[in-house]
Amino acid sequence: MDITTIGGIIAALVLFAIGDILEGGNPAGLIHISSIIIVVPTTLSAAAVATKQKYVVAAYKELKIVFGNPQLNPEETLDQIIKIAEKARKEGILSIEAEIGNIDDPFFRRGLQMLVDGLEPEVIRERMELEIAEIEEYYEGAAKYWITAGETTPVFGLVGAVMGLILALKRLENPVEMAEGIAGAFTATVTGIVSSYLLFGPFGHKMKAKAKDIIKTREMILEGIIGIALAKNPKMLREQLLIYTGKSEEQGK
């Protein structure tokens, strides 16, 4: 669970409610079902129009990393790389074939298998870099869907407000109903702005940020496998790859 996502949303909503109450309002009055229906599904549909189908699917599938955390353990992965590097240096590349089955990460397994199969380091790098690029494009497309939704929502909030005002102005003969209609109309604007800057936009930006951690781990695996292929000293290889775990930055402070 990512407390900054869940806690941030809850804190913002609570603060909105407190501010409204202090001004003599009722937060429940900001929840207008017709405004939500007009603004939110319409925004998500419009964002889908602007996004390739596979990335729309990915956008919802990968929401789990916005509210949770990717299953990454770069330090453990680094230890596995170094263990395999030591074995390969002592017993030869073919000796690491038995270790492949112990690796959970499919990307890591494929890289090691290419190494055991005797592919040249340049070929391994080319193939693994292509796969990393595809992963990066996948998360970029998924995040872009939410960012597009965040950019679009305020506009649909405005559309909802205008629609509400049109209906309200048709009730000129009844000032009370007209006032209620105007108040309801402006809830669409609130819904659009809150959805944009509290939900959809932040979802996209956080997804991009966490995708960078995934990509960084893949890059560490790539460099580790190339290091093994080149028979680098395991100690030197560890120092080279430590930067991908963030530990080298901490040690420098």
Automatic annotation (TrEMBL):
GO terms for biological process: bacterial-type flagellum-dependent swarming motility; chemotaxis. It comes from the Bacteria. Keywords: Cell membrane, Flagellar rotation, Membrane, Transmembrane, Transmembrane helix, Transport. It is found in: Cell membrane. Its main location: membrane. One of its GO terms (cellular component) is plasma membrane. It is a multi-pass membrane protein. The chain crosses the membrane at residues 29-51, 145-169, 181-200. The keyword Transmembrane applies. Coiled coil: none annotated. InterPro entries: Flag_MotA_CS (IPR000540), MotA-like (IPR047055), MotA_ExbB_proton_chnl (IPR002898). The keyword Translocase does not apply. It holds the Pfam family MotA_ExbB. Residues 102-220 form the MotA/TolQ/ExbB proton channel domain. Belongs to the MotA family. PANTHER family: CHEMOTAXIS PROTEIN MOTA (PTHR30433), MOTILITY PROTEIN A (PTHR30433:SF3). This is Chemotaxis protein MotA (Motility protein A). The lineage of its organism: Bacteria, Pseudomonadati, Aquificota, Aquificia, Aquificales.
